[in-house]
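thread: overnight batch results

M.L. [08:02]
morning all. the overnight job finished for the chain we discussed friday. pasting input first so we're all looking at the same thing
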Amino acid sequence: MENQAGILNFWQQGDVITHIVALLLIGMSVLSWVVIVMKALDIVRLKRMAQHVESFWHSSNLNEGLSALDARTPHVTHANPFYSLAKQGHEASAHHRATQEQLHDSLDVSDWVTRSLRNAIDDSTARLQAGLAVLASIGSTAPFVGLFGTVWGIYHALIGIGASGQVGMDRVAGPIGEALIMTALGLVVAVPAVLGYNALVRGNKFILGQLNRFAHDLHAFLVTGARVGQRNNAGV
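M.L. [08:03]
and the structure it wrote out:
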């Protein structure tokens, strides 16, 4: 109750600048949590998709494999990066075989497929990293915004104390202590943003690692007609 009373007193005694800084920090906190929750749910969903990639290789043909991957997310465009990767690789391979006398004919099928797969991975990387810049910005700026609010609150409190003409310790400690709430609020906003950013980066690295592994196997299949290690295993 005392903390609530202190916050209430600080809000009542604060001016427009103090209120704006406090609302800005609250808005930054809400935004960071929205990004953290949404991106965390995306990573969980993508990890589940990665677990089902093996079903693609158990399909009888490439079209059936694409259908198996697409069945995981039939109503959301680009929701399954593994499907997008396989689809673009398949289209690149088919285009290279069917098209003659164009500029890309100077590239062999391996280079052509590699470029298409790399473009697909780059698109997926951009989608995975969307929103992380917001967390990085909030994590790095929120403490300074809170510090500015504290400095302004202390200045505002000292002006009020000077105007009253009473400079006792009880008159100084209360307003200055309440102004320090802004610094604490800035840290409360920044710490989850930084921790969330680091956790999401680690999750994205895992997903990108799975995408690169799938792309490596896709490249081998589209160029040679067999998955990496498949010929050796068949010959054993």
